[in-house]
Amino acid sequence: MGNIGHQRSGHLDRQLDAKGRFSLPVDWRPPVGESVYFVKVKVEGIRGLRVLTETAFARKLDDIDAAVDLTPRQRDRARGILFGSAVESKVNDQGTLSIPKALAEGEGLSLPGAVRLVGRGELFEIFTPENGAAVEVAEEKARAEDEQLSDLLGF
Question: What is the pTM of this model?
């Protein structure tokens, strides 16, 4: 059985302040001094932000380097796209994370306003409350329609 270590799980509702800051639960915070990386994503076709820890970001780079079906040019391009898409940030000493205003507003997040966090292990995602609810519905539908996935999860 794999080691689950420091993992983020579940759904959490948080409030962004006018500067795009929100408090992270202690068990969702990266180790002190480590950066996190915001990347725009679509989950089940729904817009959101993915927050990768340094470990998750490094693993993504390792995945690119290890992809045997990519040419060196494609690897360089994939690395460039990843770095070009990422916005680095840090959780402050009080456990607050800031989403840059332009990034937040570009993803439809209101400042101030509510957000939905979804834990995904080494990373988590940030959605508007409406998009967070839509992702939950889409994932439940996918699980219900895919017998193999449902059997694998066991619920």
Answer: 0.85
